[in-house]
């Protein structure tokens, strides 16, 4: 288990490093990726509905790979609902107590424009307020409805 965990970390760190290098190069060459060229054509939404740290790291790594592949020219949403919502809950109320490493990956991806949507229906069920969410979280009415709406807008849907 520890070896698998370390392997996932190395993969994720490698993905983030690649994204950082490619992103810096793209920004230095073109300015803002969405600036004069308009919105990106590469759109993806990831379903995150489990609280397992290995599962979460796989999704975060996959988002980093997509960013790297498209030279940061991708609109990425990670839709958190059900047990996956715990990723977006601040430490005092968070029953999962995720490692600092996972939260650093969320912050890093957010800096590259990845959006983390938080299902308000799940929030109601587990008695979480907007004030209990991390700053990167964007509340949406429903994770399921959000997945439908984003797919209608042309987002590719990735479920694990």
From TrEMBL:
UniProt signal peptide: 1-33
UniProt keyword GTP-binding, yes or no: no
Keyword field: Signal
SUPFAM superfamilies: DsrEFH-like
NCBIfam families: TAT_signal_seq
The name this protein goes by in its record: Uncharacterized protein
Native source organism of the sequence: Acidithiobacillus thiooxidans ATCC 19377
């Amino acid at each position: 288990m520890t070896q698998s965990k370390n392997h996932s970390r190395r993969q994720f760190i490698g993905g983030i490093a690649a994204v950082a290098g490619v992103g810096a190069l793209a920004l230095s060459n073109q300015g803002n990726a969405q600036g004069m060229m308009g919105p990106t054509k590469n759109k993806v939404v990831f379903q995150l509905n489990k609280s397992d740290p290995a599962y979460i790291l796989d999704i975060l790594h996959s988002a980093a790979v997509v960013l790297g592949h498209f030279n940061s020219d991708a609109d990425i949403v990670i839709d958190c609902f059900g047990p996956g919502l715990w990723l977006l809950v601040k430490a005092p109320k968070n029953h999962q107590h995720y490692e600092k490493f996972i939260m650093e990956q969320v912050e890093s991806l957010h800096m590259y424009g990845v959006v983390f949507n938080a299902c308000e229906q799940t929030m109601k069920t587990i008695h979480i307020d907007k004030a209990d969410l991390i700053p990167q979280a964007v509340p949406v009415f429903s994770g399921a409805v959000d997945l439908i709406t984003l797919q209608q807008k042309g987002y590719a849907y990735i479920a694990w």
